[in-house]
Backbone:
């Protein structure tokens, strides 16, 4: 599965090595408690930066706590819901991740540098991992309505079609993903899509 652009949108990472999207991270010690006084003096974007750092340190629970605080300060903040969904996805809390992606989509305000299509893509990943491939395919299709040039949506939908035995649709999606990856200069993902096509033909 492919999802979750890095903070600057430079590349994509696999499920368990995903990073948060947001602004530049501010260093923070992994064991530093989040005090109410410190949070009161911090903005929601700053809390997202600190949550990003927690994720880089492997502290997804700490990131969730910081994102909870960000949402207390700014309840209509899609990026905070999206990032909290990513942390829950990494912790394999699929229902929690799906709920946060739903909220990010519903709020649809302040995505930062993230393509909103990734809320649908990541919700699709959570649904696939929960065994709901039809729901995942619907999410990838919706992501393509938001951004028709999102190669990852085609790639992931192709994986689910393949796993459901619909090789014709899978190959069509992998071909579209390969074309887009090539246009975007993403050689590794292009090669992965070509490999998937060759496996099915």
Residues:
């Amino acid at each position: 599965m492919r999802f979750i652009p890095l903070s600057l949108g430079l590349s994509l990472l696999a499920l368990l090595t995903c990073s948060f999207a947001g602004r530049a991270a501010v260093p923070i010690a992994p064991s530093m408690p989040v005090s109410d006084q410190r949070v009161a003096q911090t903005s929601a974007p700053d809390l997202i930066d600190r949550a990003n750092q927690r994720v880089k340190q492997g502290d997804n629970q700490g990131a969730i706590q910081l994102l909870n605080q960000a949402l207390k300060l700014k309840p209509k903040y899609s990026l905070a819901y999206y990032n909290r969904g990513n942390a829950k996805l990494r912790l394999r809390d699929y229902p929690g991740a799906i709920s946060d992606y739903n909220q990010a989509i519903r709020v649809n305000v302040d995505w930062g540098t993230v393509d909103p299509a990734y809320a649908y893509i990541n919700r699709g990943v959570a649904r696939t991992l929960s065994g709901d491939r039809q729901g995942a395919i619907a999410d990838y299709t919706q992501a393509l309505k938001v951004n028709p040039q999102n190669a990852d949506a085609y790639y992931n939908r192709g994986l689910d079609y393949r796993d459901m035995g619909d090789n014709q649709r899978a190959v069509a999606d992998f071909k579209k993903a390969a074309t887009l990856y090539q246009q975007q200069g993403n050689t590794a993902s292009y090669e992965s899509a070509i490999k998937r096509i060759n496996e099915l033909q």
Notes: Strands lie at 3-5, 12-13. The chain is about 65% helix and 0% strand. The mean pLDDT is 84. The longest helix spans residues 167-183.
